[in-house]
Amino acid sequence: MNLTGIQVAAVLVIVVGGSVGAASVVDLGGGEPLTVDGSEVVKSSAGDAAFEVRATLNNTGAANATRSLELVVEDESGSALTVDERSATLAAGEVRALTLSAPRDAVTAGRYNYTLSEGGETLATGTVSLDRPTFTVSAAGADPVVRGETGTVTATVRNGGDFRGLRTVDLSIDRNDDGAFDDGETVATRSPLLDAGSDASLRFSVATDGLEPGRYAYRVETEESAREGTLVVERPATVRIANSTLTSDAVRGDRFNGSVTLANLGDVPGTETVRLDGPSEAFDWNRTVTLGGNETTTYEFDAATANLTRGNYSVAVTTANDSASTTLRVREGFLKVDRLDGPGSADVDDDIRFSARVTNIGDAAANETVEHRIDLDGDDDPETVTTNSTVDLAPGERTTVEFAIAADDRDRFSDRDLLGTHVHGVYTGDANATDVVVIREYRSGGGGSSASSPANDEPETVSKDAITQEKYGLDYDGVSGETQTQVDEIHERQPFAGDLVITEVLTREEIARQEFGLDVKRNDKFDFTAIDVETQQEIEAEFDAQFESDDGDRIDSWDELAQAQFGSEYEALDESQQESIREQYRAQFDS
After folding, report:
1. Cβ(437)–Cβ(343) under 8 Å?
2. Could you tell me the maximum CA-CA distance found in the chain, to the nearest angstrom?
3. Which are the contacts of 566, defined by CB distance < 8 A and separation ≥ 6?
């Protein structure tokens, strides 16, 4: 073909559809040859062009050459459309690439015939197929996840089509392990918008609360493609007590011993605090431990029981998720003094002997020292140990122990130390019993024995505690107010008459019971006024006879009142005077 004297040779190489077109040379007129040395069709992965036709133009002539080329596409229905035009001016000998494009908005997916022409003359033809958006899963993966935490599955998706598109990508997990991915097993969905030929990295979140630890198959799937893999759900760190040994029986003073083995039942490391709780601060023990997945460790511990009394105690070793406990039985011997025997009074020149019955009322053997003590400094607290004895008793067993203050033991106790009224007692580590002993000096003379006062001839004053110990086996503070009133009067009316000692002095209540045989019960409230008046006068006379002094006398008898008011005995008064005395006597009890 001759066009204006310019010779054009068009060579077209078609890469689409698997065919290559034949090169051609076209005479474009003007005497200047412009050749198409080669061309190719390229589908673009980005940009506005769906595909491009790239032609190589070569001006082999000696002058400039300018021409215009067109790209026409024809769809499967036969409808044709010019989609691009380009003009090119080539200098003599110049070679240039010229690209004509089919815009994406001018075409859709399908098969097209295209024509490259100049001035209505066909230079090259070919066929190109344009694909719709096609999403392919090119990679997928998942890291292990601890049950209860959120897992992640990642995937790379590529749009292999020729157009930008939005597609759905689903993640399914085979929860029931039946080898199939059912509709109800889709756990997450993503819908990326991708340009042609571009990739997207997707992340799917997987809730694992409803998944038991184990291995689960998963699938990342598009309409055209799928990738499968395995999601590993690990057991969370759970530290449990795998084993424990705890002492359940101990004699007081023994060490409580124990051990605990902790096991992490999870697949990942975990930190836990293990504690020992018991009846005292000695049991306050704890450790914080970090264990790897499926790792175990053992701890040992002990505690003192010396500060625990006999009984049962709860002991437990605990973690946040587990515990092991036992009942610790603490046994101990307990030595009770059942009975204390000894003289109420004794000669300082003789051996003074005492005995006591000691019983182990505890539930463990007892090996203890039993002491006899005496109060020599007058504070009513027996602190001086005269002698001791060691006993070894099984539970429930009893024995009698004997003690003596030897007459020849004067390097420890002088006569001056021992003379007087003393509280003494037998003491174990658990209990005691006390009494009162009067130690006097006896001198011979006048054909018989008579008691004398201590060497300094000063009357001895007996304390309130000594009085109550002798009479009631208790300290002064341990008796009732009524009894304290009786003790107060005895204490105030000292010294005692004649050779009487505290062990021989009686209260009005004791005189009524022992001397007159009245039905007066020990520990009952003593109502002196309930006794007939004549007997009251007799009891009062015997009570007063025990003392040298009237100081502290709570009750004056008829004779004492008569002497004070009329200077006469009661029986010598006339009726009117006696009535006056009787009224005064009764008034003592009304106030």
Report:
1. yes
2. 190
3. 573, 577, 581
